[in-house]
Amino acid sequence: MTDIELVELAKKAMENAYVPYSKFKVGAALLDKNGDVHLGCNIENAAYGATNCAERTALFSAVAKGIKEFEKIAVVASSGDYASPCGICRQVLFEFMPDGKVILDSNEKGMKVFTARELLPFGFSSADLK
Ligand code: THU
Q1: Which residues pair with 106 in a beta bridge?
Q2: How far is the CA of 33 from the centre of ligand 1 (A)?
Q3: How far lies 59's CA from each of 24, 34, 85, 87, in Å?
Q4: Which atom of ligand 1 is nearest to the CA of 57?
Q5: Which residue is closest in CA terms to ligand 1's atom 14?
Q6: Which residues are 130's β-sheet partners?
Q7: Which of 26, 88, 112 has most ligand 1 atoms within 8 Å of CB, for mutation?
Q8: DSSP letters of the chain?
Q9: What was the pLDDT predicted at 81?
Q10: Successive 10-residue mean pLDDT values, the chain, 130 residues
Q11: Which residues line ligand 1 (CB under 6 A)?
Q12: Hey, how many other C-beta atoms are within 10 angstroms of the C-beta on 71?
């Protein structure tokens, strides 16, 4: 699956975003090591802190199915500009796919690609639990 194809799937996933508060839709498409794709959208809550970002929705949905090895994730936002993953999502991405690719797409500026490790320098991991 190409990065462009994954971005297109993230755009489809964005349609399900539940965003009555921010009106800012985010979609994510996560490719696992078996070649299957897991979709995620942001899901907001009247208690704002209970909101779940699109990236974590995709990751947690996959992990709930028993899948823990991932290759890359594409993320898009309804603004058409980049959706830069929040700090919590960077930590969760770092847990499951530290060297996986994070593809951020902007309609006008194109794709930016990072590893989760690049997005979370000196990140905390299970190796630190000693
Ligand atoms: N959001 C995401 O889902 N992913 C990001 O990468 C950035 C922010 C969501 C959370 C909230 O529903 C809305 O965008 C505005 O912050």
Answers
A1: 110
A2: 25
A3: 20, 15, 13, 15
A4: 3
A5: 24
A6: none
A7: 26
A8: --HHHHHHHHHHHHTT-B-TTT---EEEEEEETTS-EEEEE-B--SSGGG-B-HHHHHHHHHHHTT---EEEEEEEETTSS--PPPHHHHHHHHHH-TTSEEEEEETTTEEEEEEHHHHSTT---GGG--
A9: 98
A10: 98 98 98 98 98 98 98 98 98 98 98 98 95
A11: 19, 22, 24, 26, 42, 44, 51, 53-55, 75, 83-86, 89
A12: 16
Rg (CA), the chain: 14
Can you tell me the distance from the alpha carbon of 117 to that of 120, in angstroms, rounded to the nearest whole number? 5
Residue that is written with structure tokens 């974590």 in the block? 56
Q: What is residue 107's predicted lDDT score, i.e. its pLDDT?
A: 97
